């Protein structure tokens, strides 16, 4: 999905989410080639933090706004997204209590990356284009997301 083509009504909201998607995908790719445990752990921690904040703002702000705007169009899609998030959150919780070298550490992060790649593909190829097609006004939601993300990131890094 190309940020430049997003209409004004969805721009702030979807651009923020697309940037997050790009950022974690980059971390997933880096993890594939990294050998050093310290860097590995840093990648896992950063990706888990980013994903925790990202899924939270989607669940708090975007998904309810879509269901409220048009339940028929978005009800099932959003329900599935929430279930996909829950699967990712389980792996994140497990990874947060582990360290590199532990049994299944690499496997859990690799499977998390696969879950997220799949989920991001659905958002960018199905959900977000539908939001634009249905002309859902997300200007207020976008502004709230920017603020909420800032607050959650500074909490997470404190
Ligand atoms: Fe997302
Ligand atoms: Fe999502």
TrEMBL record:
Q: Which residues form the Hemerythrin-like domain?
A: 15-131
Q: What is this protein called?
A: Hemerythrin domain-containing protein
């Amino acid at each position: 999905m190309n940020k430049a083509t997003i209409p004004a009504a969805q721009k702030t909201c979807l651009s923020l989410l697309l940037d997050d998607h790009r950022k974690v995908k980059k971390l997933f790719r880096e993890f594939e080639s990294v050998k050093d445990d310290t860097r590995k752990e840093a990648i896992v921690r950063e990706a888990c933090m980013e994903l925790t904040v990202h899924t939270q703002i989607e669940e708090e702000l975007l998904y309810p706004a879509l269901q409220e705007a048009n339940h028929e169009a978005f009800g099932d899609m959003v329900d599935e997204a929430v279930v996909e998030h829950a699967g990712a959150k389980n792996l994140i919780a497990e990874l947060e209590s582990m360290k590199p070298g532990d049994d299944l550490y690499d496997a859990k992060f690799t499977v998390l990356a696969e879950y997220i790649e799949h989920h991001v593909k659905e958002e960018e190829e199905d959900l977000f284009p539908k939001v634009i097609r249905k002309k859902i006004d997300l200007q207020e939601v976008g502004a709230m997301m920017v603020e909420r993300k800032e607050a959650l990131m500074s909490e997470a890094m404190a």
